[in-house]
């Protein structure tokens, strides 16, 4: 049996690769990989069923967040321009849209609520953090965050695969 590379080393090497993802002209949010990577472990680890649930639910959460962002942009000033008007509109939009998100979790195929909130929170952080190749466009942030969140379960799977001991005699066979 070959000794395995420690998970700490593998995770650090994989984490370092995200620097190349975030440093592109697309200005993608590499931290969204970490959110989904950690979430994959919280949901039970990088197994097929867990990864499928994560991939199904994170974009749903991101989509609901996109709806909130667009509605707040369009309706934010209808109750005035001071503090209370826009804050009240935002609170009401979040109340209604988040309620719809929570009801969506009643659908068995997408009932991983934490996965939805990983996508939800990642979308807000991506848009309001100024990530994406057009920082004023919420649709660009949505595309960027879905792509980066999708890599999280992949990173979790690769970390497990690389840190699992291999049998030496299997490696020698063609």
From TrEMBL:
Membrane-crossing segments per the record: 20-43, 55-75, 87-105, 112-133, 139-158
Keyword Transmembrane: yes
Xref: InterPro entries: DUF1097 (IPR009476)
Pfam families in alphabetical order: DUF1097
Keywords annotated in UniProt: Membrane, Transmembrane, Transmembrane helix
Methyltransferase among keywords: no
Domain of life: Bacteria
Protein name stated in the entry: DUF1097 domain-containing protein
């Amino acid at each position: 049996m070959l000794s395995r590379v420690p998970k700490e080393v593998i995770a650090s090497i994989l984490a370092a690769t995200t620097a190349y993802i975030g440093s592109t002209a697309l200005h993608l949010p590499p931290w969204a990989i970490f959110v989904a990577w950690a979430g994959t472990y919280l949901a039970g680890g990088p197994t097929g069923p867990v990864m499928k649930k994560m991939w199904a639910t994170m974009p749903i959460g991101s989509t609901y967040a996109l709806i909130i962002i667009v509605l707040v942009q369009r309706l934010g000033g209808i109750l005035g321009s001071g503090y209370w008007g826009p804050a009240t509109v935002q609170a009401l939009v979040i109340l209604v849209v988040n309620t719809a998100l929570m009801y969506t979790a009643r659908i068995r195929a997408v009932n991983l609520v934490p996965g939805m909130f990983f996508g939800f929170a990642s979308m807000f952080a991506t848009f309001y953090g100024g990530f994406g190749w057009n920082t004023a466009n919420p649709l660009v942030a949505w595309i960027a965050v879905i792509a980066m969140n999708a890599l999280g379960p992949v990173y979790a799977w690769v970390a497990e695969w690389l840190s699992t001991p291999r049998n030496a005699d299997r490696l020698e066979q063609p």
